[in-house]
Please model this.
Amino acid sequence: MLNRSHRAIAAVALGAVLMAAAMWLVPQGRSAPVAASELAQRNRISSCKGEMKGAVVTDTMLLCEQSEIIVDAAPACSSCPGGLNVVFVEVSEAFHADWQNDAAIGVLQHLDTIRSMTVRVAVVHYDSRQVVTRLRLTEQVSRARGPLNQPVLGHDPHGDFVGAAREALSILRDSRQDVERQGLPTPCEAVVFFASTKSAFPQDEQKMLEAAQLIKGDRVPLFVGCPESNTGDYCRTTRKMPSKSTWYAEVPDTRKLASAMSGQTRSLEKDVGVRTFGLSQLIPPGLEVEAGSINPAPSEVIGTSGTTMTLKWEWRNPEARQPQTVTFKLKPLQTGVWPVDGEMQITDMDGIKAKVVMAQKVITVTGPCIRPTETPMPSDTPEPSPTTTPEPPPTPTPTDLPPTATPTREPQPIYLPVSLREPACKNLERHADVVLVIDMSTSMNRQSVDGAQKKATVIDAAKAFVGRLDLTANEEGKSDHASIVGFNNDAWVQLEMTNDAAAITTALDTLDLRQKEGTRLDLAFLKGAEALQSGLRTTENMAVLVMLTDGLPNRVPADPETGRVEDTVIKAAQVAKDMGASVYTIGFGRSTGDDIIDLVYPELLAACATNPSMAYIEPRADRMAAIYSEIASVFTCPKERHDWSQPWP
Model:
């Protein structure tokens, strides 16, 4: 269980549970900075954080229409109100550096999933020559991926084990002092330490044990890994280092340390559970709740239509620990811009309360519905009888006149309005196999700069794009094909390559069922390349990959060679290019701005495209369909069509 250094027991009533967690609490050999009761009073801060997300199905509507609100909420509490600090200590060179790096990344991936508390990480590298802090404590957990992937193949059995342990403790102690000065709760702590030495070097073995005792003596939980292949010799002393025997791992098991860390952080989350969990939604006067549309039924409704209404729900332990979803429909009462606010209230088992505010959702009511003009019914008035029009007398034919002396004019071009029917694309087509790779991160629920929901805009544009494909097989059985891929923290093939228009539409409509956080641009390109080899794919068709994202790369591992996340993405895009695919990229956002969630990375998208001209950056929703159309025009109509920059033949 993870260390709360300098933190006294928050509630004596939980004595039995907290005794089991004592290793994570007050440092051994030192008194707590204040008495338990005093600390509990000073630190009346809830460790509960949770997540609350709202979505509006239709954010712009007329007075005769309605919209649905969907709210997802998940409470989470832990016994670490000050968060969790983890220091990774890696050997700069090891016989199995790849195993060491993978094992460390496995722990990091677990830490990146924790939502009940703030997690901070740091990275230290060491060998016999030096100890270097590669990353200071940071809440941006993904930043540790690059440093954790840097150690290389090699061997140095005389590492400065004690110096590395002291550096890790220095990082943790600095953090403790910072929060104590601010009167904040002291964080829980842990060290993940990699070490090994040959049994022929007893002095180094003794230094390894001394390093471990320094960390454990400061009541910091110690997880240990041995990055060597000859485990019987090189790992003999490493096995004695961890706080618990189950907190030790060696080649080839790369997941054991992550599992050990997962088990301990889960126990922290159980130490202080959720007693009650409530949601509230504030409905403005210009909107009213449609009768019978609230699911589940609220525990309380305050106010009436035409005034500000409050809907409230409440769940109690153990049901309160489960994520909840509430939905309801709204009808407009008057035009205007109407905000819908909400919040989540959490009470932990100590009775300490926390509040999570939902990002405000706005519904715009533009005006009354326009009823179509009724076509008048035909009258019974009889039609007039036809009249006989007299024919005009014949016009006398003029006699030939002698030619005039007017000089002949040189021919000049004239411009006439004409209607041309060029050869149909069907007769001159170049068929294509297209993969549409679409960002399904939660930020796609946000509005674009011109007020439209990004997700709905892109799905509609993608459908229009597919509508331009020729999915009907010709006499030779040839046609265009399309595949749909979604991505966020994962990537998946929603639909393999096919010419079934109905299946493609369904795939696009259901793509958001797997919507969640994360923007793994690397997985987007890799899964898109995989889809190019699926289903009805034929090498006779040109291969096209169109990737759309609305954000920066997120949770992407750093390239092991350069330590840059961008290089990981570029190499993934190159996989599709090496398969002969024309790669287009679309950034649905802004290249600059204060809100990072709305930013895209133009240089990265240009580098991922087949050439920079095939990368698009656009913040406006009303331009998205035109971009997809422009891309489709490259391969849905033949180059043999007339080039209007040239004279007509």
